[in-house]
Amino acid sequence: MVPSPQEIKQFQNTKTVGIIGLGDMGLLYAQRFSQAGWHVVGCDREESFEQFRDLYGDQFDVVRNGHYVSRVSDYIIYSVEAENIEKIVSIYGPSTKVGSIVGGQTSCKSPEIAAFEKYLPNDVEIISVHSLHGPKVDTTGQPLVIIKHRASDESLKFVESIMSCLHSKHVYLTYQEHDRITADTQAVTHAAFLSMGLAWHSCHQYPWETPRWTGGLENAKINISLRIYSNKYHVYAGLAITNPSAHSQINQYARSCEELFTLMIQSRKQELIDRVMRAKQKVFGHLRKNHRLLLDDDLLEQYSLSNYPPGKRQPNSQLSLLAIVDSWSYLGIVPYDHIICSTPLFRIFLGVTEYLFCTPGLLEESLNVAVDNTDFRQDDLNFVMAAKHWSIIVGYGDYNLYKTRFEETQKYFEHMYGEANKVGNEMIKTILKRVKEREGDEQEEEEQVSK
Ligand SMILES: NC(=O)C1=CN([C@@H]2O[C@H](COP(=O)(O)OP(=O)(O)OC[C@H]3O[C@@H](n4cnc5c(N)ncnc54)[C@H](OP(=O)(O)O)[C@@H]3O)[C@@H](O)[C@H]2O)C=CC1
Ligand SMILES: O=C(O)C(=O)Cc1ccc(O)cc1
């Protein structure tokens, strides 16, 4: 039940919200909460205190460190790098005010909850959150996971009151459910787009500079890949490395890439077709014949980074998309089951994949090209190696190697981020609008049927 405006006002009159970590997400929360009328106290690293106080001290209270946040706040959110959550909670956790509630924004909840259980005093309650979108996306209507781990119903109402100003869609899960779902959705989505970027880098290509990557599907791949590389490495490293379920998903993705590619280069066309069609049946078989597609090529055509006039599309094997459906099929994942708990990037990845698999003739065209045309073999080979590379780094849990590889490719694409983010933001806005319209249409249809 959404708390009433009176209930929210009552909480606002007596309670304080604390944020530890004023990076992209922490700052978003601190600004939105304080604009909505909450008393907010925040901090970043102690050595940055003066800088943050000068920048944001007129918007909310900036204090020296997490001890000062913890002592005065009734709900404290740790919005820090996943890799450091245990260390940071171990420092500030014991200072938490008696009877208050603590949560975190990290993308994988098992280590976060373990740190809370280990270091928070027993009288402190635990309700964690996770906004399933990046800091530049409009929070309205996006999923916001709320995990009531150790707390009363009244405390949940307080946290819901704070979050209500984001106008997000609250999704209630346990931390185990959260980690299983986000491994299926976020981790493997990032692995695919990270591999595209690394493969282009390895082949010394800027994909918008050649007519080989034209058309809507390619625009979406390029824009999302650059969007990920324009971000901080730790967001992607943290959510993949700290989530054990993510390792097997990313590993399966790399294996699917390699096995499908092997069928292509060995010209085992019928085996390739049989395998992909079996996967298609498992992942998309439940869709109605006249099912409306999430996305289409025409819609995505306009979001190009290239100066080339939209010419004739040059078909390729679409290995990255064949492999995700193959992985979903192997792992028994039906991606539509996760839509209520999905990020914008996952919805776009699903939309693009659905377009390839459910548009008459398109999948067949890709399978033909995959075996009969060698023009993209080097790109596909580099893609297979890139997927393997990310899978190995994540499997070993090597943050340093992750950072090095990520930042090398990040640097390669650096000059394009301004343009890519501008075009990407418009693309994402249009896609999300389309997804919302389709959800509305489907709800209407269901209501008609049940009448
Ligand atoms: N960005 C995204 O799209 C999303 C991220 N998340 C998750 O939210 C969390 C925060 O991410 P994001 O805001 O993007 O990352 P940022 O790196 O922008 O923010 C983290 C902030 O915490 C600061 N910090 C580090 N140690 C301390 C400390 N001891 N005390 C106070 N502050 C400290 C960091 O400082 P410094 O930089 O100096 O280390 C940094 O400013 C991560 O766990 C991420 O996985 C969740 C949803 C979306
Ligand atoms: O949409 C995506 O997948 C993003 O890349 C943004 C993102 C990153 C980390 C999260 O925990 C949630 C969202």
What does this structure look like?
The protein is α/β, with parallel strands linked by helices. The protein has two domains: 5-173, NAD(P)-binding Rossmann-like Domain (Rossmann fold, 3-Layer(aba) Sandwich); 179-441, no CATH class. Helices cover 59% and strands 9% of the residues. It is built from 19 helices and eight strands. It has helices at 5-14, 24-35, 49-56, 66-72, 85-92, 109-119, 153-163, 175-202, 216-229, 233-241, 244-265, 269-284, 297-301, 319-331, 344-358, 362-372, 377-396, 399-412, 417-450, and strands at residues 16-20, 39-43, 61-62, 75-78, 101-104, 125-131, 143-150, 169-172. The protein has an eight-stranded mixed sheet, sandwiched between helices. Helix 2 links the parallel strand 1 and strand 2. Helix 8 (175-202) crosses helix 11 (244-265), helix 9 packs across helix 19 (417-450) and helix 14 crosses helix 15 (344-358). The protein is globular and about 70 Å long. The protein starts with a helix and ends with a helix. The structure holds NADPH dihydro-nicotinamide-adenine-dinucleotide phosphate and 3-(4-hydroxy-phenyl)pyruvic acid.
